[in-house]
Structures are given as structure tokens and as C-alpha cells.
Amino acid sequence: MAIYLFNTLNRRKEEFIPVSSGKVGMYVCGPTVYNYFHIGNARPFIVFDVFRRYFEFKGFDVTYVENFTDVDDKIINRARELGVSTNEVAERYIKAYFEDADALGIKRASVYPRATEHIGEIVNLIQVLMDKGFAYVVDGDVYYDVMKFDGYGRLSGQSIEQLQSGARIEVDTRKKSPLDFALWKATKEGEPFWDSPWGRGRPGWHIECSAMSMKYLGVPFDIHCGGSDLIFPHHENEIAQSEAATGRKFVNYWLHNAYLLIDQEKMSKSLGNFLTAREALKRYRPMAIRLFMLSAHYRSPINFSDELLRSVESSLQRLQNFFYNIEDMLSRDIMVEPRSKEDFTSLELADTLLNEFSSAMDDDFNTPKAVAAVFSTIRELGPYLSSNPKKTVLQKLREALLSVNTVLGIFEEKSKSKDLDVQEIERLIREREEARKNKNWEVADEIRERLREMGVVLEDTKFGTRWKVV
Q1: β-pairing verdict for 141-144 and 135-138
Q2: Which of 37, 211, 232, 316 could form a disulfide with 156 if both were Cys (CB 3.0 to 4.6 A apart)?
Q3: Beta-sheet strands, E only, within 69-216
């Protein structure tokens, strides 16, 4: 079945047709590395990771590019505050980014280009714009001449006049139009710089993404992703400069996620509700944050609150318990082949889950509907697991859940649980079972407490003792 995406450029859902059959090129605007990324940034990083995973699930070969903006006014100011070089600031927070992104289950990109490592490509692209008459120099700064580009405002859906009256643009009388933006910034004292035909300086923000995306994905490429706050001016300017330089369409599909709110308010430092992903990871289970981000459609605003996150943690635990129960049962000596009506109905539910999941994801990555299909399935199958399940049925259910999880990335197999010695856990459980048989309740309780300290909770059932990670 075809995948349909909501293309911001055309404001409608469109069938995804890749530039190259069987391949997908995706570019995601990554962080400006002057601090830890906040929980609002975590939303696009997680949802676009899931989109990438789904393309791979469907058999596409995905080239996933996510940049680091490692030269910028914010980085320069941060370096001054800390009394270190801009390079030290960038390296510190790139390292922190990987730590936090890894904790959230975000797969590593195919490429992580840095602006400072692509100055040559950036300078060459600016030179092309100069040669074609789309850029001009003022006191060593190079500006893009917006009025020269026909169709400026297409992505944001506004005319030049609307953009001029509604945008927050720094007044600079040297520019031909208030909307003109910097391609190259002349060096100032104490700032990093590189040589260029227009003098020493550094690149503007917008030109960095054009140069890096075109280098790794070509023109046109398939999908450009980012938060809705990037539609204007960042992505609008990327289109203008890229298409002016190449004379070709820049990107076929533009995908943008909506804002994340905290307690129904837009996150801001002035309101005191600013929360970094690192801080959130200390309060909540990483996979609960991930599941929370997938619980609303990516184009709808989502409200982040402690109450909601605690609720999601409970839901995640139910899902993990269900999956771990299946794993436990499969390790036991139970009947293999399905025989009863309940067996065959449960087999069909595994197929239904995969069909409903794929149908939801094919429809503009409808993750809440996809997640709902998973939870609906485990609700329906709860009674079956408590009756007389067959090994063949359980194996198919396990495979279906693992298949869905390659996209969602919200739980692990016990054998892959991080920082846990599964063999040691199973050994302690056997010791406890032996102690219980001998009515040595003190030893049994000591083992239960030891496991609890390891982050493992036990559940005694008629099928034996099961365990779960908390």
C-alpha cells in the first residue's frame, strides 16, 4: 500500500513517490549546539526517527541526514559566558546530544554534517548566487536578494507584503529589503572566521542547511523535516537560495511537526517552564517520553505534563508486561500447535495488528492510531494469555509485536535489556522458587528485595514467577 504524506508546500496529503525507486533521502534540521536540547526539540527528533524507521520497515534504503549548527551567535555568546572556544562549546553539546538522543532510542543518522566542516561548499554556493545576481555584498556581508526570486513565500503561504508586515525582522538600512537575509557575515572581533571572496567571516544559518543537504542528498531530494517554527524564515529561505542556485526544485516533500506545550503553555524560560530533555530523562522513563511523543499526531500540538507522563509510564508498563509474559511462556513447556477457536482467533489478531498498524502509518504517519492498534490488541489478548495459550500462537504474537516495535522503538526484549544480567536474574528467581517450596519465606523475601534493588519486580502467577523491569 502507498504511503501518503502531508506536504507543507502544497498543504495536502500526497502519495510518496521517491526520487530513486526503493530509496529515501531525508534531511532533518538538527540542533544548534550551545546547550542541552529541550523537550520541545525532542519531539521532532523522535517523530522523524519513527518516520525513518517506518520507511525501513517498508523496505526502503534510507539515507538520513541530520546536521549540527556548530557556528552561530548563540554558540559565540555561550563561549564567552564560559570562557572557552566556540569549538569547545560545540563539542561539549554534540556529545551531550548523542547521550540524550541515544537514551531516547533515536537511531544514529547516516550522516551528521557540521557547518564548520562544509565551509567550502557553503562559499561555493554563495558564489553561484552572486554570479546569478541573487546576492549582493555590503561591507563584507553577503545578502540574498529576496525580490529577485519568484515565488518567495510559497512554503509559508504568504505574500511578500504579508511577510514584510508580519515578520520579526531586524532593521538594517543597508539591505535592499527587510526580508533579505545573510548568506555570509563579516567577521567581528573575537568571533571565529574563515576566508572567502568577500573577506573573512562566517556563514549565515540558512545557507548551511542548503549546502549540506544538497551535498549528501542531491537535488531534488525526497523529504525535508523540521518543527513548524522553521517554516519561516529558515525553510522558506532554504528553498529560495537552493532553487535560485540550481534552477531546479529543491525538495519534494516538506514535513513539519506542531509545537509541544508544557501544562498548556508554550515553553519559555521567562515562564519558568523550560525543560531540557536531559532533565526530563531524570524524571521519567526514556521510552515513556518516546511513547508520549507518539501519542498525538505529529501535526497536532501536544501538551507535556507530569500527570500525562505518569499515565504514559503506566501504559508502557502494561505493554512491556504483556510482551514479557509472552517471552516467559515461550520458555516453558507448553503445547505447540493451535487447536481451539481461541487459538485461531488469536493468530488472526496478530495479522490484524500488523495490518492496522501499517494502515495507520501509511496515512501520514498516524502514530496515535498505530499505537492504539497495539494497545487494543493486548487488551483483546489478555484473557488468552491467562487461559491455555499455544506456543505457535505466542511465537506469532511475539513476532508481530517485535515487528511493530522496530518502528516505534518503545520496549526491549528481556535478553536485550540494558545493564541487566538476565542469567543472574533468572538464577535468583529459581533460588527464590526453591526457597518458597521449602517454606523458607525469609530467604524468598530477601531475594525479592535484592531483585527490586536491581530494578526488577516479580509477579507470582499460576504459570510461575514472571519479572519485569521498572
Answers
A1: antiparallel
A2: 232
A3: 135-138, 141-144, 181-186, 201-203
Element (H, E) at 119: helix 119-131
What pTM does this model have?
0.88
Closest among 357, 394, 350, 392 to 373, alpha carbons compared: 357
Look at the block and give the residue holding cell 542541552: 36
Q: Cell numbers of 168, please?
A: 520579526
Answer for the pair 111, 30: CB distance below 8 angstroms, yes or no: no
- CATH code, residues 312-413: 1.20.120.640
Buried b (16+ CB within 10 A) or exposed e, 60-81: bebbbbbbbbbbbeebbebbee
* Radius of gyration in angstroms for the set of CA atoms belonging to the chain, rounded to a whole number: 26
Q: Which residues contact 399 (CB under 8 A, 6 or more apart)?
A: 350
Beta strands of 198-357 (E only): which ranges? 201-203, 221-227, 251-257, 260-262, 265-266, 302-304
* Percent helix / strand / coil, the chain, rounded to 5: 50, 15, 35
From-to residues of CATH 1.20.120.640 in the chain:
312-413
Helix (H) or strand (E) holding 128: helix 119-131
pLDDT tens readout for residues 374-399: 999 999 999 998 888 988 999 999 99
Tell me: the pLDDT tens digits for 312-369? 999 998 998 899 889 888 888 888 887 888 889 999 999 999 999 999 999 999 999 9
Q: How is residue 235 annotated by DSSP? A: I
Sheet holding 251-257, edge to edge: 61-66, 23-28, 221-227, 251-257
Angle between helices 119-131 and 236-246 (to 10 degrees): 70
